[in-house]
């Protein structure tokens, strides 16, 4: 077995013909659409963690015994009394909830938000690279179309 067979082949994109370039363009567009969807989902997760962090920070000892609205879903709230201002119930994913101190919950949500922010930055760079690649393919396609038009004139 030769070592060259395990190496990926490099193809100069300008050597491709128009149908091949169209396929590359379509593939890049699909990848960019998928990455953009993922980016939007991460933005939503980031927003959710920031709201949770804000909610934890709003729980203060002076509010003990006061009536609050407790979220059951994103759009359904029920009245309840705040009996423990030092602990909160945190959704840690896949239907599991953990009782944490406010400080631990704050750390938890900050770390989640920071993690998502880092992933958003990385994903933004990837989306930009895909856009640059797509622009390059479009430019090559346009120059090949122009060259074909001028040679047939």
TrEMBL record:
GO molecular function, one term: unfolded protein binding
Gene3D superfamilies found in the cross-reference section: 1.10.287.370
The keyword Protease is annotated on this UniProt entry: no
Domain of life: Eukaryota
InterPro entries: PFD_alpha_archaea, Prefoldin, Prefoldin_subunit_alpha
Keywords attached to this entry: Chaperone
GO BP terms, alphabetized: protein folding; RNA polymerase I assembly; RNA polymerase II core complex assembly; RNA polymerase III assembly
A Gene Ontology term for the protein's cellular component: prefoldin complex
NCBIfam families on file: prefoldin subunit alpha
The family this protein is said to belong to: Belongs to the prefoldin subunit alpha family.
Protein name: Prefoldin alpha subunit
UniProt source species: Schizopora paradoxa
Source organism phylogeny: Eukaryota, Fungi, Dikarya, Basidiomycota, Agaricomycotina
């Amino acid at each position: 077995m030769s070592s060259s067979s395990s190496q990926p082949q490099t193809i100069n994109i300008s050597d491709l013909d128009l149908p091949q370039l169209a396929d590359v363009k379509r593939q890049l567009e699909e990848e960019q659409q998928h990455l953009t969807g993922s980016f939007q989902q991460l933005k939503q997760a980031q927003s959710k963690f920031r709201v949770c962090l804000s909610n934890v920070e709003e729980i203060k000892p002076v509010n003990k015994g006061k009536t609050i609205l407790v979220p059951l879903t994103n759009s359904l709230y029920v009245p309840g009394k705040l009996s423990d201002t030092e602990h909160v119930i945190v959704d840690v994913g896949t239907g599991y909830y953990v009782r944490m101190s406010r400080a631990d919950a704050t750390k938890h949500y900050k770390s989640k938000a920071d993690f998502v922010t880092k992933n958003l930055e990385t994903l933004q760079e990837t989306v930009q690279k895909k856009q640059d690649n797509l622009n390059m393919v479009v430019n090559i396609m346009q120059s090949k179309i122009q060259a074909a038009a001028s040679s047939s004139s």
